[in-house]
Specification:
It holds the Pfam family OpuAC. This is Glycine betaine ABC transporter substrate-binding protein. InterPro entries: ABC_Gly_betaine_transp_sub-bd. The chain is of the alpha+beta class. Strands 4, 5, 8, 9 and 10 form a 5-stranded antiparallel beta sheet that branches. Helix content is 33%, strand content 21%. The protein is built from 10 helices and 10 strands.
Length: 308
């Protein structure tokens, strides 16, 4: 195994195999799959469970990137899919999930960190330009959130959002809508990211006016030609960093993994290409192939890249 620039990786010895429970039940869990572990034929360093929300594709792409890299240094990786952020943070705090591979702990998920943060370990910031937005297609001739109140009829009085438990939903409902006086003229429609994209796709095909909640980085911004509405009141919050979060004590239990993870950083172009390749070029069921292709095209994306 060739570990390019990877430092601090210890020799693989005998390690106990860990069995981790899923961090939610019922409707909270969309599914769970086992990745099968190290492909080197050596004993596993242990089992690490990655918890992520497949509909939030920033985390989907980094989850599969971490799966690839952790398996290559000798871990068995289990992928745990959930549908809401709350159960994911709870599972992380309880130790049922080991890593959340694309967290927004500074602003968007601050309420979850306030609740669970003393049982969560920050494994490092990997991207610095994350931002919550209110957006419209480029063909819509308004440029500011301030313009929404006078144009409620054009948008049918609806802002299409994502999951009810998302930090983006809370920020929109509790900060943006009251700040701009939209309480009486707009309804925030929440369901799922997929449902929001369906509405957006339909509106775009008909060149119909639509306003949605969005964020950066997100592949749909480019795919649908979305423009962020100006936010002069700062109601959607400032830009923040994305982090890898671990359950408390993660670095002590999995030092090789923690060393690798803290070396991962992505810029705008790298992150955009990773997400686009995983979500669009390859798609569901071909995530591992997408990661292989991305690593081949971006051999110097970050200092701790591990190759076979």
């Amino acid at each position: 195994m060739n570990k390019r620039h990877l430092t601090g990786i210890l020799a693989i010895g005998a390690a106990a195999s860990l069995t981790l429970a899923g961090c939610a039940t019922g409707n909270d869990v969309a599914g769970g799959t086992s990745a099968g572990g190290s492909n080197s034929g050596e004993e596993s360093l242990g089992t690490i469970t990655l918890g992520f929300l497949p509909s939030w594709t920033d985390g989907l792409s980094t989850a599969y990137l971490l799966e690839d890299q952790l398996e290559k240094i000798g871990y068995t990786v289990e992928m745990q899919e959930l549908t809401e952020a709350g159960p994911l943070y709870a599972g992380l705090a309880q130790g049922d999930v080991d890593i959340y591979p694309s967290a927004w702990p500074e602003l968007t998920h601050k309420s979850y960190m306030d609740q669970y943060g003393d049982k969560i370990e920050d494994l490092g910031e990997y991207y610095g330009g994350a931002k919550l937005t209110i957006a419209v297609p480029e063909y819509v001739d308004i440029d500011s959130i301030e313009d929404l109140e006078a144009n409620a009829d054009r948008f049918g009085g609806k802002i299409y959002g994502i999951e009810p438990g998302a930090g983006l939903t809370k920020q929109t409902q509790e900060s943006m809508i009251p700040a701009y006086g939209l309480d009486d003229s707009y309804q925030l429609v929440t369901s799922s990211t997929a449902a929001m994209l369906t509405e957006l796709d339909s509106a775009e095909a008909a060149q119909r006016d639509i306003v949605v909640t969005s964020w950066r980085p997100f592949w749909a911004n480019d795919r649908y030609g979305l423009k962020d509405l100006e936010d002069p009141k700062g109601a959607m919050g400032e830009a923040e960093a994305l982090h890898f979060l671990g359950t408390d004590g993660f670095a002590e239990e999995y030092p090789e993994a923690a060393e690798l993870i803290k070396g991962i950083t992505l810029d705008d172009e790298q992150y955009a290409s990773l997400e686009d390749m995983v979500v669009n070029e390859y798609g569901e069921g071909k995530e591992a192939e997408a990661i292989d292709a991305w690593l081949e095209e971006n051999p110097d994306a970050y200092d701790t890249i591990v190759t076979d």
